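To: structure desk
From: M.T.
Subject: fold request, one chain
Message: Could you run this one when you get a chance? Sequence is below, nothing fancy, just the single chain.
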Amino acid sequence: MWANAPDDIAAYAAQVGTRLDAITRLASDGGLDRAVTLLADCIAAGGVIHAFGTGHSEAFAMEIAGRAGGLIPTNKVALRDAVLYGSHTLAELNGRPPLERDPHIADDVFATVNRQPHDVFVIASNSGVNGSIVGLALLAREHGHPVIAVTSMEHTARVSPKHPSGQRLAEVADVVIDNLAPYGDATLDMDFDARVGAVSSITAAYIAQLLTIGVARTLAERGEQTPLYVSANIPGGDEHNNVIEARYEGRIRRTA
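Reply: Done. Structure tokens follow.
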């Protein structure tokens, strides 16, 4: 039996809840407005939002791109794209050290992205220091694309950059959104070998949804179309989605 379940659940709920409340206040006070405007301008100009994350931060990219209630002109970028669309091998994805720490992989991943001038990159990384993350952000900036970062400011300040530039994601991006995760991500000390109760995936998902809602509202207030996905699992969903997806053919990927 999980004898102390009520205490554990309440403690974790408090850790999550206080952070979500803080992000809610940030959004209400206009703290996400710059990011929302960049994304809305991108879509209004016919651009695509490219979302990238490695490890658990890939969940953030999935929250941005290709889900019900989400924006259709979005593209999930992943390390595996260098295998699926590039020349890297499957074995490299499971290499040691992890491929996400390799700054050179960013060039190959970036080369697989079908970019146009108005496109924006949204990059999530809790630590914000791995080579692939910083490398992709630098490449996006070098090619004229704004970069929005979602990262833990507490964590990134306490670890050393792994990119040859010596920079962190937060130092490269045009806009930085703090996911409010603590150093190490986990939140609860429970007499185990390490802490439990990570929060970055939850706070990042909430940020992703707030950005989506903000962009949809902004576009609607401008009188622009809001190209949103309807669930493919309800009648008419595929038909609705396919029509709008066709406008971005070759620019957005919907791989498994």
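Reply (cont.): Residues 5-28 form the longest helix (24 residues). Let me know if you need anything else for the meeting.
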